[in-house]
Amino acid sequence: MKKRLYIELENCIGCRSCLAACTQCGGHEQRNRNYVYDVNPHVNRQTMPLMCLHCENPACARSCPAQAIQIHETGAVLSALVEKCIGCQNCTIACPYGIPKFDEEENLMYKCDLCIDRTKDGIPPMCASVCPSNTLQWLTEEEIEQKQQQHDLDNGKWVTSMPYLEGETNVKVNLPGILQGTEKLF
Amino acid sequence: MAETVLRKPMKATHSINNAFASKFAKSMFLTVSAIIVLMFIGTRMFTHVDLNLYGYMVGTFVFIAGFFYRFIAWGERPPTKIIIKKGIKLLFRKSTPKISADHLATYQFIWNRGIYRWTQHLLIGWGVILSCLVTFPLVFGWMYFTMEEGGYYTIVAMGIDLMTVPADGVIAFLSYNALNFTAIMVIIGVSMALYRRLKNMQARAEQKFLYDFLPLYLLLFISITGLILTFMNVFLHGAGHYMMSLIHQYSVIVTLIYLPFGKLAHIPFRPLSVFARNYREHYGEQSMKECKVCGEGFVSTEQSQDVVNVLGTNEIDFTMEKDGFNLAELCLPCRRKYRIARFSGFPTHEVKTKEANQNAKG
């Protein structure tokens, strides 16, 4: 059954387990490919993860002169093919979310590949496997649908991707309860 | 009346391009013509064509057709077109020879990816390149050997007597065995690559038979059949030579035809990395794009604009009307913080503080 990465941003407690887990994914060579940000660092402790959202029309791949960024049949936008990436860094400029990282030494771009060695077999990506606060979840379409109904406040504040992101994405994002004016009970 | 307005006067152009149906046709015609002219010179008016190698010649022409088909289609993509156009313009920068040597000869960047991978790539890469440098001059008669007096070979290059060497000397030995040495290089390199593909978990997850294994098997097949030829000649008094030389020839031709379409296509396309480096360095020296939020230069103005244009041709536009900038005008940390701001409603990107702990190191 097709599952998606689903991010419920407001749950993030800033533990950075997802970053640590990312480094342990096969082929990531001890380097993480995702981010955790303080929302208002001098005032409170709210954090949010920032992952590649795996756009359906990825700007990174569109801007790549070498066709090094391939799209997997599961919809995952893969990291640069090592033999094709020519190190122009167009993708880092094109990505609306600033996700791709570039290694100057290896002359190679690397980005979240949604742990394709796992997700192609239906195993959740490393980040979702370890997230202790259910910020990152690995859900079926129906479960995401349920989430939507559960959180829909009928005021346009529920968001899975459009129109709040720059395009349709394979990863679905839920905008925080902070915006919805609700507090969650865990 | 309207008709007369619409009708444009036919402009008489004499551009060479008008002689050909397409870019492909032009490239193909010019390349094949050039090879034939060089053959004419090299073989002293076609008197020294080695017809034993005629299959390779046909295979090469088919390869060239495939190569142009693939390369021209690829070069039409908007981002590729920009890199090629500006790369050619910047080809004569002072740093080009050094970057080319680093990227195309010593593979410095692969060394940085791992010594094992560098070793296998060096063996396969240089094994193949050296083999081509020996094979194709022989196929097209740009290099051949004559024996005017017993015991001495004259090496003829492009129709010119280059040198006369003793048939049992060092240079002659190296010439006869060049392909044996490169075959051994390729076999060792391919074996290392196959071993890595069997053991490395990431490679095992991503590799496909047609894309990742087939080129390795083809190279292995060529190298082994080539070595068997030598073995048959040296130890079996040439028994089975003709059959094996045909098998070897077929394997080379199949590889040549396949080359522009699979993983090996990175051989002719890889010089673009030199273009890309020149492009970044040249325009970076001219002017850097300053981030609209933090003011730090993070990429050349030229490249920033090029990317915006390329995305425009794909009908992708990341202009943020409300904030008055395009996302490509933000440096990477600011762009990420801006996204957090869009998620949270709080302007994270305007808080002047460095992004904290992005490496999960305590």
Automatic annotation (TrEMBL), chain A:
Q: Pfam families this protein is in?
A: Fer4_11
InterPro entries with a match to the protein in the record = 4Fe4S_Fe-S-bd (IPR017896), 4Fe4S_Fe_S_CS (IPR017900), ET_IronSulfur_Cluster-Binding (IPR050954)
Q: Tell me if 4Fe-4S is a UniProt keyword of this record.
A: yes
Q: Which GO terms describe its molecular function?
A: 4 iron, 4 sulfur cluster binding; metal ion binding
Is Cell cycle tagged as a keyword?
no
Q: Which UniProt keywords apply?
A: 4Fe-4S, Electron transport, Iron, Iron-sulfur, Metal-binding, Repeat, Transport
Q: Where is the 4Fe-4S ferredoxin-type domain?
A: 3-33, 39-74, 76-105
PROSITE patterns the record matches: 4FE4S_FER_1, 4FE4S_FER_2
* Highest taxon of the lineage: Bacteria
**Which PANTHER family does the record associate with it?**
ANAEROBIC DIMETHYL SULFOXIDE REDUCTASE CHAIN B-RELATED (PTHR43177:SF5), PROTEIN NRFC (PTHR43177)
The identity of this protein, by name, is Fe-S-cluster-containing dehydrogenase component
From TrEMBL, chain B:
Q: Does the keyword Membrane apply?
A: yes
Q: Where are the transmembrane segments?
A: 28-47, 53-72, 122-145, 170-195, 216-236, 242-261
Going by the UniProt record, its keywords in alphabetical order are: Membrane, Transmembrane, Transmembrane helix
Q: Does the keyword Acyltransferase apply?
A: no
Stored InterPro entries: NarG-like_sf (IPR036197)
What's the name of the protein?
Nitrate reductase gamma subunit
Organism, scientific name: Thalassobacillus cyri
